[in-house]
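From the pipeline queue, job 12 of 40. The input is one protein chain; the requested action is below.

Action: predict structure.
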Amino acid sequence: MFPPPRSRARFYGRSTNYTSVAKEALLRTIESGDDDVTRLEGELAAIIGVRHAVAMPQARVGIYLTLRALTRTKKKVILSPYTIHDVINMVICAGATPVFADIDRKTCNIDTREVEQLIDSDTAAVMVTHLHGLACDIEGVAKVCRARGVPLLEDTSQSFGARVNGKRLGSFGTAGIFSFGMAKNLNCLYGGAVVTDDEKLAAELRHEIATYPLMDSSMLLKRAAFCLTGDVLTWPPIFGVSTYWAFRYGYLHGVEALNKRVRGEDAPQIKTEIPATYLRRMTPMQARLLIPQLAEVDRLSEIRAGYAKLYDDGLSDIPEIITPPLRRDGSHIYLNYAIQVEDRHALVRFLMQHGRDLTVQHMGNNADYECYSAWKRDCPNARLTATQVVLLPTYPGYGVAEVQRNVELIQTYFRVHHQRTEPARAAHDAQRSVSVAGVNPAPSRSGN
């Protein structure tokens, strides 16, 4: 029997953050201290290297408000189809038209050549996503957008802190959007920000946000309770004796009641109007949770990049795997290490059977979803990627030994796979060689 692994994911921020939410709710201090939000905005602007930062209740609200401001005359927004489906909904809710651009397989990010081909006279904006902590070709896209006079938005929800040639992601275009949700490398339960050098855009966003009520304390309490429960269940002593075995059993035996609790997105649903529950303001309490985390961002990114180097050393030479590019210059911060394999479920099943805790990426290709059929576009790379990504853990507390064990078992899986497929491939090649030479193989004596 194998020793239990560490959990595939852990929340960033301290567990005490979640108990402090409950304490502040009881003392009714969640809403006090407006200067804390202002301070957070100032620190965010300084870190990213822009003039303005405006706190948001969620990154998706930042996308919605920014696009609403930029799409009053022109309507087309070019973006990757490989993203969470509510990003597409925010484009639609803003009154704009999504135009799907295919992606680069290695990074899972938008392809610059596609952007250049799709820009036309009605293009209101290009929105790139830096997915899985990997910078897209942001300098290339920015150059195209400047040449064509098109605003550029960066969805940097999964890549806070990354740099390209010393310049922070989020600062290359008209605006950058960040997420501080529970699954991100900065976590205040909900939350986000828009950063920009555009004085007019910043003023419009501030004016709009000021009309919203503060984030409801009951929502924050529920999210804090969820995160605290998750922290307890994934704490190694508990995860190793109970949680892991329950979820492993659920995965291997198809127990939906267990599997749905760790799955990401389910079937997408179109939204044409933004839900009223989205239209809130970040609370001062959330700002107080975030501010101490800012100082740790670069240090934790270095740890994840170190894990990525170990994964790359062990997996990049396996021909059946597409691995992400290895960069140690700060441009890739590897929120996860996303590999692509043709039969990802077979790989994950093997790994779970042998004592690992891993999962597939449940995000899909929005360009193929029926609910977005009005904007359907053939994006073959996104279609393939959406069926092949497996997420390998990189959170800082995961540990070198866990990464190495993942690598060893993935190597074993493909070594066994080769042993099974090589004889069949050799027989097929031999028969093909005979046929090409003009000699018909002997007829089979089986059957009639």
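Job complete. The first strand starts at residue 52 and ends at 56.
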